[in-house]
């Protein structure tokens, strides 16, 4: 009887070892597959802390994202040649003044274009919000921005609330700005 | 779990073929054979011992060598099919856009192409089912090794010296006979075997000589190497272990290195050299005649900069690290990153020179050169004349609502909106200048900007790679090879010699491979010690000599 019990105990132990080995292997494999299959190169995802950066605007002022902690940041990546950018930026300008007092800032990051080109664009559309130029693509790479325009809504806590990879309508811009207003 | 009780009184686990104590055959299958199945020394393969829960069922599935071989075959077949059409990273656009890639396969290869892409064969190593297969192979390797390796190890470790006569009788090399002085024969045999570097153990008038047992672990060491190899490949999925990016950088530009935060690269110049009839020996002469040009060098001279630890993206405090000339197969190496020369584009327009001319007289007031990467607002021509650059369109694509448009930021078709001010025209005249096209939107002008020349620059395509998994993969490969050598070039050899009270001597021999050498050793021992003659019993049975470690499940 004791031998029987002993064997039963041994068998149980073996069961546990087997289950553990299979579980570890299965987890490793599933993890690998999931990471590989879902690898759509989005370095920054909703819920992540928006990577900090510092860039200089057309007036020569340095803007550091973390300086805006406590306020919402409407972080818009754009190019002068991009059609949807031309359409949405006047709408952004419209709400810029209104929301600035409510704690929502606009930061428009141009991707590596010349000062003249960016300045003439700002003049053409009468843009007054800060426009910074990412001359080395380092901020673009940190956010892995692919299509332009891409907009990151950064909440007062510094976390990314939403990523918009397309043109935004006037109503959407307003709603997005309201969504990142500090309470 | 039931167990099998041997005649000697030893309890063996279910599935045991040969009593682990005395060596008597246990299973009916084993009893029916003339020769003992020594593959796992008759030990029960673990998966055979019980089949109850789901875990056991999964375990048994992967423990089957048949299943393992099937997985390997499936991987081979899939890999072979994966070579039929180009993989997604070789098609135009590199498959960055999935819809575009799908369209490409359908357009170029029809229904087959569509199916091929839909099944994930176009991105084989990235498809979930291929990864699953490789993962299953990994599980199979682990389970098979544990399932067979552990019982074999235990069986060999605990093997009895005085095996039952029936065990000896059922070995492939076997002989028996009477000798005058059994003790003297045994002693001399032991002496000779020791000289052959056998490890001798004696008990109750029985002798076990053994050498090279470690050769039996060859397959398991081999499996361990494979598992480490697969683990290394798996590590690539973890961020920071593996980087494979590419970037374009124009001459004169300083850009962040893609995939390597904190590193910046300045392109100091791209060189594309060719072999010509003048500068080459005979070697390429024929080829140059045939194809026109043969490249001799692609080179990007770069300066590497790095921002201090903790610096933010966009900060401009990068410090100079080193200069380097990247040529094909000679990458720039820094902090585990390798930056390779991969591609190039020649002669992108970088600057345009215009002359400010009087339209009627053709008299030139001077020239200005617009640097397209960094155009200036105003150019002082001298002689009281200046030209303002109101706007610049790098890739002019036409007008929309009277506004000039640029399709891309690349200077494929530069166009400019100039305002020319001269002493003769102090109010200024506006001119829109594009290639082969000049518009005067605000009325007839007195002056014009006539194109003089264009400067060009080259663009280098670089690939950035980092692979921290290489040491793990190399380690796996080395262990794999050690296992192969261990199992292939070394043999596990054993002799059992036993005397009975009536002066009879039994001798039996077994080896994992290379029976000829075993026989040669036994011949030498027999000659020296006068052991009874032996025979190779397999000859009588005409059984095929299966290799050790082969499947039986």
From TrEMBL, chain A:
One of its GO terms (biological process) is cytochrome complex assembly. It comes from Bhargavaea beijingensis. Keywords: Cytochrome c-type biogenesis, Disulfide bond, Membrane, Redox-active center, Signal-anchor, Transmembrane, Transmembrane helix. CDD domains: TlpA_like_family. GO terms for molecular function: antioxidant activity; oxidoreductase activity. Its main location: other. The chain crosses the membrane at residues 16-34. Residues 44-182 form the Thioredoxin domain. This is Peroxiredoxin. GO terms for cellular component: cell envelope. It is found in: Cell envelope.
TrEMBL record, chain B:
Its main location: membrane. It comes from the Bacteria. The lineage of its organism: Bacteria, Bacillati, Bacillota, Bacilli, Bacillales. Keywords: Cytochrome c-type biogenesis, Membrane, Transmembrane, Transmembrane helix. InterPro entries: Cyt_c_bgen_Ccs1/CcsB/ResB (IPR023494), ResB-like_domain (IPR007816). It comes from Bhargavaea beijingensis. GO terms for cellular component: membrane. GO terms for biological process: cytochrome complex assembly. This is Cytochrome C biogenesis protein. The keyword Membrane applies. It is found in: Membrane. It is a multi-pass membrane protein. Residues 534-553 are annotated as: Disordered.
């Amino acid at each position: 009887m004791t031998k029987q019990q002993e064997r039963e105990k041994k068998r149980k132990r073996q069961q546990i070892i087997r289950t553990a080995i299979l579980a570890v292997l299965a987890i490793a494999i599933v993890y690998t597959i999931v990471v590989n299959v879902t690898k759509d190169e989005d370095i920054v995802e909703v819920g992540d802390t928006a990577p900090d950066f510092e860039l200089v605007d057309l007036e020569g002022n340095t803007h550091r994202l973390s300086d805006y902690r406590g306020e919402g940041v409407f972080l818009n990546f754009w190019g002068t040649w991009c059609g949807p950018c031309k359409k949405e930026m006047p709408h952004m300008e419209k709400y810029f003044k209104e929301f600035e007092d409510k704690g929502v800032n606009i930061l428009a990051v141009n991707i590596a274009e010349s000062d003249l080109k960016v300045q003439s664009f700002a003049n053409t559309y009468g843009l007054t919000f800060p426009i910074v130029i990412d001359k080395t693509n380092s901020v673009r790479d940190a956010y892995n921005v692919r299509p332009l325009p891409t907009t990151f809504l950064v909440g007062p806590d510094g976390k990314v609330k939403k990523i918009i990879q397309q043109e935004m309508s006037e109503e959407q811009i307003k709603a997005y700005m309201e969504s990142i207003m500090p309470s | 779990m039931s167990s099998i009780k041997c005649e000697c009184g030893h309890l063996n686990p279910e599935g045991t073929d040969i009593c682990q104590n005395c060596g008597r055959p246990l299973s009916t299958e084993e009893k029916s054979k003339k020769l003992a199945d020594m593959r796992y020394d008759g030990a029960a393969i673990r998966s055979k011992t019980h089949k109850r829960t789901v875990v056991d069922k999964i375990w048994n599935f992967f423990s089957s060598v048949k299943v393992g071989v099937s997985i390997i075959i499936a991987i081979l077949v899939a890999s072979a099919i994966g070579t039929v059409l180009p993989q997604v990273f070789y098609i135009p656009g590199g498959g960055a856009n999935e819809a575009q890639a799908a369209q490409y396969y359908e357009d170029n290869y029809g229904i087959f192409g569509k199916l091929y892409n839909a099944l994930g064969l176009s991105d084989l190593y990235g498809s979930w089912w291929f990864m699953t297969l490789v993962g299953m192979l990994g599980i199979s390797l682990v389970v098979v090794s544990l399932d067979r390796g552990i019982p074999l190890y235990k069986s060999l470790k605990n093997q009895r010296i005085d095996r039952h006569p029936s065990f000896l009788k059922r070995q492939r090399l076997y002989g028996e006979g009477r000798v005058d002085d059994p003790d003297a024969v045994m002693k001399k045999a032991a002496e000779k075997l020791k000289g052959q570097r056998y490890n001798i153990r004696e008990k109750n008038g029985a002798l076990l000589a053994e050498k090279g047992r470690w050769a039996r672990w060859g397959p398991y060491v081999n499996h361990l190497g494979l598992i480490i190899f697969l683990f290394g490949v798996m590590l690539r999925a973890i961020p920071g272990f593996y980087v494979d990016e590419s970037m374009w950088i124009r001459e004169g530009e300083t850009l962040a290195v893609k995939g390597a935060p904190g590193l910046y690269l300045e392109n100091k110049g791209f060189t594309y050299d060719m072999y010509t009839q003048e500068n080459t020996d005979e070697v390429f002469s024929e080829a140059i005649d045939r194809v026109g040009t043969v490249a001799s060098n692609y080179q990007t001279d770069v300066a590497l900069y790095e921002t201090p630890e903790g610096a933010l993206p966009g900060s401009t405090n990068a410090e100079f690290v080193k200069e380097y000339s990247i040529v094909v197969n000679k990458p720039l190496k820094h902090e585990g990153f390798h930056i390779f020369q991969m591609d190039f584009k020649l002669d992108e327009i970088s600057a345009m020179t215009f002359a400010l001319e009087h339209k009627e007289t053709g008299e030139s007031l001077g020239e200005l050169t617009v640097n397209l990467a960094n155009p200036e607002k105003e150019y002082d021509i001298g002689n009281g004349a200046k030209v303002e650059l109101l706007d610049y369109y790098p890739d002019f694509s036409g007008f929309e609502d009277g506004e000039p448009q640029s399709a891309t930021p690349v200077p494929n078709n530069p166009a400019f909106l100039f305002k020319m001010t001269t002493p003769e025209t102090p109010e200024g005249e506006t001119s829109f200048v594009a290639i082969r096209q000049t518009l005067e939107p605000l009325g007839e002008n007195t002056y014009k900007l006539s194109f003089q020349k264009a400067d060009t620059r080259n663009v280098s395509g670089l690939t950035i790679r980092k692979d921290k998994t290489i040491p793990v993969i190399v380690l796996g490969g080395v262990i794999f090879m050690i296992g192969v050598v261990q199992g292939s070039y070394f043999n596990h050899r054993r002799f059992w010699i036993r005397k009975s009270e009536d002066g009879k001597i039994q001798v039996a021999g077994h080896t994992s491979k290379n029976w000829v050498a075993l026989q040669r050793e036994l011949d030498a021992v027999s000659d020296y010690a006068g052991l009874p003659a032996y025979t190779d019993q397999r000859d009588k049975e005409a059984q095929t000599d299966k290799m050790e470690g082969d499947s039986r499940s």
